[in-house]
TrEMBL record:
Transmembrane segments: none
Region of interest (Disordered), ranges: 13-33, 50-69
Pfam families linked: Lipase_GDSL_2
Listed Pro residues bias regions: 16-32
Species of provenance: Streptomyces aureoversilis
Compositional bias ranges of the Basic and acidic residues kind: 56-65
Residues in SGNH hydrolase-type esterase domain copies: 91-343
UniProt name for this protein: SGNH hydrolase-type esterase domain-containing protein
Length: 385
């Protein structure tokens, strides 16, 4: 302060501080109608959706089970559209993303039969194309930038473990009265840690892709789902173990011990691995291991479809092993059929309507026995059946 009565030197006024730069606004999800997207493999693409139960009739509409029957010919495109070719993605019209009761304006199925984690992972992270299509997460990125994605459902990892190969090898061993489970269990033990890392990488990639498009984790639901068992335990088969009709008619050529290992060990281990990935990545988890209980291929209490036609309450919800391609294609074997696809859709709808968390989905035995009569419960409880 200047002394009293003295002249203070004249100083230029200090310039006002420049306003702090306004941070660039964080990008936000696009406005507009909401969209649900499916990513992954055959269990979510809709493989097997051509069929309404199984039958040993091989002509015409096959007792009403073959939805590809036009009345004069078989046209798989009626079910799988442009993806119907052998080896194609087989995105069926009853895939769970299409049948689930979801509050969205649009559903987009990017999943493809035969996909492994490398086909879902973006190209920038080493992902590969499949059937001439870009990696699924790259396609998700395009959708997320132009549409408001509110749900992503993901099923992946089964092909990396070699689930289809396991089924095929066990069927082969049945023909020679050999057990396969010990050999396959050792292979699963060897592969599972690497598969967990691959599934985790896919989830991280999906999260990063959505973030790059302006989404926070709370702007959409990411539902990571496990796999339903196509086989019952060995004690629950319709036919005795040595009956040749397990192959010739029922399409389930498996030893009781191998089936029990698959039902009570392999499928639960896959589910536990996927559950742990979901928990570590903050994703929702949909446990499907018990969803088809009582309606697996050859399960006691179910029958093949007869002349009166399909009835979901008494027939199988999985496609049997069509080992000779005598009806459809071998690749449809051991996948949820149209009944099973609707059950999966019902489960996804229930989880989407519930609070974020981990859930198991099972049949609601207080319901009418239809595939849409499902219920969810906390996954830890579901694990104990």
């Amino acid at each position: 302060m200047a002394a009293l009565g003295s002249a203070a030197p004249v100083q230029a006024a200090a310039p006002a501080p420049a306003p702090a730069p306004v941070p660039a606004s964080h990008p936000a999800p696009p406005a507009g109608p909401s969209v649900a997207v499916a990513l992954g493999d055959s269990f979510i693409s809709g493989e097997g959706g051509r069929w309404l139960g199984n039958t040993d009739r091989y002509d015409k509409g096959r007792n009403g089970t073959d939805r590809a029957w036009t009345g004069t010919a078989y046209d798989p495109g009626r079910v799988y559209g442009a993806t119907a070719a052998v080896g194609g993605c087989h995105r069926s019209d009853v895939a769970e993303i299409l049948t689930a009761p979801l509050p969205v304006a649009e559903r987009i199925n990017l999943a493809c039969s035969g996909a492994e984690t490398q086909h879902v992972l973006s190209a920038a992270r080493g992902g590969l194309s499949l059937n001439g299509e870009a990696p699924q997460t790259d396609r998700l990125a395009q959708i997320a930038r132009t549409k408001k994605v509110t749900l992503v459902a993901l099923s992946v990892g089964g092909n990396d473990v070699g689930f289809g190969t396991i089924i095929g090898d066990c069927a082969y061993d049945w023909a020679f009265s050999r057990l396969c489970w010990k050999k396959q269990a050792a292979e699963v033990d060897r592969k599972l840690p690497a598969v967990r890392a691959k599934v985790s990488a896919v989830v991280d990639d999906v999260r990063a892709t959505m973030a790059a498009a302006g989404y926070g984790d709370g702007d959409y639901r990411l539902v990571l789902q496990s796999y339903p068992s196509p086989l019952p335990g060995g004690e629950e088969f319709r036919l005795r173990e040595g009956d040749p009709n397990r192959l010739r008619r029922d399409g389930c050529p498996f030893n009781d011990r191998d089936a029990s290992w698959a039902r009570y060990t392999l499928v639960p281990r896959l589910s536990a691995m996927i559950r742990d990935v979901a928990a570590s990545r903050g994703a929702d988890f949909l446990d499907l291991k018990d969803t088809m209980a009582g309606h697996e291929v050859c399960a006691l209490g179910t029958t093949q479809v007869g002349a009166t036609g399909p009835d979901a309450r008494q027939h199988e919800w999985f496609r049997f092993l069509d080992y000779a391609n005598t009806q459809g294609t071998l690749e449809e074997s051991m996948h949820p059929n149209a009944f099973g696809q609707r059950a999966l859709g019902a489960c996804l709808g229930l989880v989407a309507a519930a609070r974020p968390g981990r859930y198991g989905c099972v049949a609601d035995y207080l319901g009418d026995g239809s595939p849409t009569a499902m219920r969810i419960r906390p996954a830890d409880r579901a694990a104990g059946r």
